[in-house]
Amino acid sequence: MTPLLEVRHLVKHFVRKQGLFRPPSVVKAVDDVSFTIGEGEMFGLVGESGSGKSTTGRCILRLIEPTAGEVVFRGENVLQFSTERMRLARRDLQIVFQDPYSSLNPRMRVGDIVEEPLVIHKLGTRSERRARVAELFQLVGLEPSFIARYPHEFSGGQRQRIGIARALALNPALVIADEAVSALDVSIQAQVVALLLDLKERLKLTYLFIAHDLRLVEHICTRVAVMYMGKIVELGETSALFARPTHPYTKALLSAIPVLDPDAPRQRIELDPASFEREAPLREIGAEHWAAV
Amino acid sequence: MAPFDSADGNPRGSAQGKPLLDVQHLSVTFGGPSPAVDDVSFQMAAGETLGLVGESGSGKSVTAFSILRLLQPPGRITGGSVIFQGRDLLTLPESEMREVRGAGISLIFQEPMTALNPVMRVGDQIGEALLVHGKATRAEARSRAVELLDAVKIPDAARRVRDYPHQLSGGMRQRVMIAIALACRPPLIIADEPTTALDVTIQAQVLELLRELKARYNLALLLITHDFGVIAEMADRVAVMFKGKLVEHGPVRDILRHPSHEYTRTLLAAVPGAGGRTR
């Protein structure tokens, strides 16, 4: 596996002032997170609300400036890039957001939305850009004749395809999908996931797939990292991690997933915070399988 | 041929006594070219859980709101009947309908933050349900609120009744919603995507709570959801809605193992990892 992205000891603390005479409180949203994503991989980052998974994604793109750590993309630490160099790097690092209703500007035509990254990066002539937009529409399964329409004329699934087309406009190497299908109905979700997988093969994409839906992650990701309160508590190949969850939080999380079989025995495992050491480092517990126990 | 218990998929038990809820040929329009709910019929026995499944716009929430006559214009019931405990709710005077809401059938919404009043203490919101229905004096309402918070397993209930909704987590707020729904001891609760906004570990706790309360109070539960996993965990029977129509209806095991309608098969196949995962 050739590493495409290496995240090393990433830290993001949010400091909140509590008034003149009280010390500020510090939220450790991302607390010493490290992982590596290989070229062409579908890497899943899962956790519940507030676990720090989205903050991690945003720190990689420097949409949020990390407090400390390194984000090494193709051998270079992007956290040390100048503004200009970072702008160039963003061609390779793109993101698809969760909410297809708020992530598209309602006053822009969808063709202009998809073209905008090309305009910002001053790529091509106007007619070349328009041809590229038509190509992108076809790529994500939308009629190129839709380009003059506005976002409100599209369904949630179609909007998410527009968001994907925009992310792909600059030919990125890494796409961060931040809960990219969470807001969609299950049958539409299946179509958009199929599209993401198809694009991965055709365009040789690498994904960081951030999600709370463990069933989906188990289904599509090659490796998974489980986040809990700002830390990765378990990381491994999907099949190993789901077959032999080792960290108490992973066990509790997996046992909470509803199973489609009404007769399956239910063994809910409650998380006992006293059962593990929060500061424990990740330790190899099997082939390609680490847990903070 | 799926082994249905009876021709219409209803359990044998309901044939003996009268069903608790009997929805017949319900139709609802929003003025569009096709009806939002199209000739929907189903029955529920006391104490049973019926899962109503479908995707956005399939008409499942509109069906629930129609049962309680809470449709907002231009939504309008164009036909059918909703017999609850022997009375047709669709012809009841509004004053009697108000009595049914809360005391006969209560509703739990998806989003506990918008469904609760942000400037009212949660204890008062629970008590309000009792006061409105004349079921308690002020002092009684206050102590009942504590009991109900205790019943939905909120720790330190006596202190929590004085909290405002923003002081509670999402899971706790949904527990408060359930306490309000339980306040007047209705025989039927309609829960519209009660756990969709919650994290999976919190969802598991809320579902567990609903199961316990159902058993304790012999509650019937109309559970509206898009998640077949939740259905498998909770429901006795399932009704699948698609474009306003009830396309399939039967015991949960039959529907999950031998879905007969194309749309049900599509929905089940779309659940990630369907069939692959056992525990």
Question: What does this 3D model show about the protein?
Answer:
The complex is a heterodimer of chains A (293) and B (279). Helix content of chain A is 31%, strand content 26%. Chain A is α/β, with parallel strands linked by helices and 293 residues long. In chain A, the strands form 2 sheets. In chain A, strands 6-7-8-3-9-10-12-11 form an 8-stranded mixed β-sheet, sandwiched between helices. In chain A, strands 2-1-4-5 form a 4-stranded antiparallel β-sheet. Chain A is globular. In chain B, α8 (170-182) packs parallel to α9 (200-217). In chain B, the strands form 2 sheets. Chain B has a 6-stranded mixed β-sheet, with helices on both faces. Chain B contains 12 helices and 10 strands. The model of chain B is unreliable at 1-15 and 275-279 (pLDDT under 50). Chain B has 279 residues and is α/β, with parallel strands linked by helices. The chains are: A alpha/beta (293), B alpha/beta (279). The A-B interface holds A 48-49, 156, 185-190, 193, 212-216, 218-220, 252-253, 255-268, 271 and B 55-56, 170, 199-204, 207-208, 226-230, 232-233, 235, 252-253, 256, 266-279.
Entry summary:
The complex is a heterodimer of chains A (293) and B (279). Chain A is of the alpha/beta class and 293 residues long.
